[in-house]
Amino acid sequence: MITIRNVQTTDLAQLLLIENEGFPIEEAATKEAFLERIQLIPDTFIVAEKEGVILGYINGPIMNQPYITDDLFEKIKEKPKRDGYQSILGLAVSKQARKKGVAQILMKKIEELVIENEREGISLTCKKELVSFYEKMGFVNHGLSESQHGGERWYNLVKLRAALDS
To answer: Disulfide check for 154: which of 75, 83, 108, 145 has CB 3.0–4.6 Å away?
Structure first.
């Protein structure tokens, strides 16, 4: 049985392993970035675990604009209580847990938080090869992002709350 819960500081080592499995070094969050996210956004840093082993995670701060900017990967700010967009800076699943629905379970939890906290929607950036994955989850491709994170080309994907309510 998979358990969904908020992140804890003791999760750090497992989170870093999953992060480095899923992202090249230029894109991967650092230990310091994870510690900051654990401290500042534990309510929107969700892990999926089974028998004490973390299978995957999703995290991101609330932002006032609909698109992610590169500065969010470096430094996050305190969030507004209501409104704003839920960003997703990271969604990663361990290699052994992939293709088992873990990413969808984590996304569903974030969607519940968006509705509960009356957010405007969810925003993320992804590479071209993942656009269709997110479109299947109801995200709309808003085209190329201005992001230069990790020296890659990213696409803005947004899912408005109206799509979650239906």
So the answer is: 145
